[in-house]
Amino acid sequence: MRRSSVSTTWLSQDAYDRLQAELDELIAARPVIAAEINERREEGDLRENGGYHAAREEQAKQEHRISYLKELLRDAQVGEAPSADKVSPGMVVTIYFDDDKDDTETFLLGSREISATTDYTVYSPESALGKSILGASGGQTCTYTAPSGADIKVTVVKFEPFAG
């Protein structure tokens, strides 16, 4: 997930705490992976040393995750979901599709990192659906383009702050 510099990600306190713990754990593991790389390096020819390359790849994945989590946590809005008269991040939103009021979906509009702490499906505000309904009011119809290229029309039925 790439976030723009002007967007803010809303996280519940539980999600923030979980992600901070993951970040702390990854940072604490840096010496372990560095030692693994050094140990594998001493095994000999690096061109044919699969263990060395695997350890370097793992280090790169961990550093990418550390960087992502630092940025996410630094810019996150943490706490109670905002209360507003328009759809915004941190809200549970119910929509229906293509004028079919029986074809509804209820989801949380927020960071996908929060999905481990809720039973709701989570859509990012930066997803096609999320972008189309941000700022919408109840009863407003919006259209977004699905990855298949199809234009999909949704109508916002209701929205309320996520209660966790």
Task: Name the features.
7 strands, 164 residues, 4 helices, single chain, five-stranded mixed beta sheet, 24% strand, alpha/beta
Topology:
Blueprint: E1 10-11, H1 13-28, H2 30-41, H3 50-75, E2 77-78, E3 91-97, E4 100-109, E5 121-123, H4 128-133, E6 141-145, E7 151-161
What is shown here, in short?
With 164 residues, the chain is an alpha/beta fold. It contains four helices and seven strands; from the N terminus they run βαααββββαββ.
Q: How many strand elements?
A: 7
* Helix-strand pattern: EHHHEEEEHEE
Using only C-alpha atoms, the radius of gyration works out to 21 Å
Question: Fraction of residues in helices?
Answer: 25-40%
Strand order of the largest sheet: 5-4-3-7-6
Biggest sheet descriptor: 5 strands, mixed
- Helix/strand-derived category reads alpha/beta
- Put simply, the count of helices is 4
* First-residue to last-residue Cα separation: 22 Å
Oligomeric form = single chain
Are there runs of 5+ residues with pLDDT below 50, and where? 1-6
Anisotropy-based shape: elongated
> Strand-residue fraction?
15-25%
Q: Mean of residue pLDDT?
A: 87
